[in-house]
Amino acid sequence: MSVNWALPFEERLLPADKSKLLDPKIYLELHKQTVENFKEFWAERAKELPWFKPWDRVLDDSNPPFYKWFVGAETNASWLCLDRHVASWRKNKVAIIWEGEPLDKNGKPLEIKKYTYADLYKEVNRVAYLLKTKYNLKKGDTVTIYLPMIPELPIFMLACARLGVVFNVVFAGFSSASLSDRINDSKSALLITADGFWRNGKILHLKDIADEALKTSPTIRNVIVVRRLGNKINIVEGRDAYLDDLLREVPENVYVEPTRLKSEDPLYILYTSGTTGKPKGQVHDIGGYMVLLDTTMKWAFDVRDEDVYWCTADIGWVTGHSYIVFGPLMEGVTEIIYEGSLTYPDAARWAAIIERYGVTILYTSPTAIRGWMKNPKEFYTRYNLASVRVMHSVGEPINPEAFRWFYEVVGKNRNHFGSTWWMTETGGLLTAHWAGLYTTPMKPGTNGMPLFGVDLEVVDDKGDPQRPEERGYLVIRKPWPGLSLTIWGDPQRFIQVYFSRFKNHYFWTGDYAVRDRDGYFWILGRADEVIKVAGHRLGTYELESTLIQHPAVAEAAVVGIPDEIKGEVPVAFVILRQGYTGDDKLATELNNLVRAKVGPIATLKTVIFVSKLPKTRSAKIMRRVVQAVATNRPIGDVTTLEDEASVDEVKKAYLEFLAEVEKIKSDPNNKQS
Ligand code: PRX
Predict the structure, then answer these.
(1) Which residue CA neighbors atom 6 of ligand 1 most closely?
(2) Using one digit for the tens of pLDDT, what is the confidence trace for 4-27?
(3) Is the CB of 509 inside a 6 Å radius of any atom of ligand 1?
(4) Angle CA(293)–CA(532)–CA(177) in degrees, nearest 5?
């Protein structure tokens, strides 16, 4: 999203707890030292965790960018999250409080389930036993998990991790086509899904979507179905089985030894959208990933044993993998997992949850906050939100208005609050206003300071550091634990997408950023063809290639335009084939196609039928021209636009395209939406 980055740099807020307050200059001095000695720094962090076997080498960087952290070490993520807590006083501490979406007449949740660490350990061991004995799964096999926000989702993830089975979680809001693509690319033989779930007061029939996907997913031999609703579903004899039926055959207190895995073995694959092609499977390791999560749980969230932690993300995205499943459980917290919509039955549901459980740490998104802002502040004062101590946001830039609103309503103008920047590829958050370390004054709208040991920089076109307050490209100049290992099945692409744009193996994030005079980062949004809709990452290419599957469509260009709540929403410009008329009916049809093929999150805001699109001489769509017209903005700094086109060409294309779109919009006979 193109955010106005000329923001008031002078605004600063101080947290109530000033004991760790540090001058940004001193923070940056310390940061510099950790970056210069980054291997030693990360080795110190890794010593915070137990290992089956310690490492021989901190980092193998002999084959960049395929880095291996803590080489020679042996570990297991499920063991880190469970066994050590069960062997300690935390055994009977509540690990997960799960709340289903439906409410009774008095507004009380109909279903709340609590799992202690001992309960979770028991369930994970039983599921691991099942996967191992009945499905013969072993280290290195892949499975796909297509589950909603129910306790079985973390249970299956931890059970796979225990065996070294590489899991691929697909967000339950994705369509059958998206699910099928991910199953096929990961070559999974087993799918784990559910009969359905509640979302916004409605039942979503997940098994039907899974069945549809399975028509085009030949690698799947078996399906395990979690009985969430107990509704009648299609069960294919010999292929599908209910989890509860299967577990009846498993001994009650069975123990499955956690497999001793190499630090650099894969833990999971998670698909994410890029600029071109289908979503890419990011592969995360175990050792480096867990070290990064341990560090950031402590330093960003300042987790303590008495905390009640709630991350409002969906486990189907990376935020949920890192900060609902592996991070918090490794730290032994008590956490909330909520099934449904944060605004069901009304916008106060989140406030009710905070009050009900006394949430102390809250990790949420700007889209969620903007949704809550639709109501007056008084709407929330009937809830006691005083328990909250640390808050963070993630997923997209936070506008200062949303920051201030949240800081006042939930933060009571005293809590710790910041916007943590990171991405699927980074494994964990890499910038924050660090609550558990040295706190620098909070600046609304910024992403705070880079994590120690992480060499984050804003650079110009050539990869040289940009001056303070000049917009540039966000890169990471040195490897860090948690960095994705590769793209599943396509290592060349990993090099090409992330490590070839800038020199010296700099990791190219795809984001625009600014560093202000005090050293704070402001991440301004994507510099490529990726858009963030309600914080969810979508490649415009995916939407365009879906649109051209329709027989009426000759060409399509999709861009993101600002949206008050969702941050950004997609808009499509479509050229039709001869013989087709662009009207409302066709626009709806195209939108339905996108929703069916990608998922409801990809819903197009508008479809505009045009006769041509602005292109470079080599027929590449000038995206920023399309974007400028779509957002009603002047074309701005044309010199940085399209590499191949001259400034005059871009300007001409812009004016032509603008004239065309304005003509369409002002045409009284225009029948399109
Ligand atoms: O553009 C940045 C934006 O989200 C992108 C990564 O998306 P994804 O892989 O889905 O991971 C999202 C959750 C970690 C980034 O390239 N982004 C993420 N967090 C922020 C952000 N933009 C601004 N501020 C943030 N706090």
Answers:
(1) 423
(2) 444 444 578 887 778 888 999 999
(3) yes
(4) 90
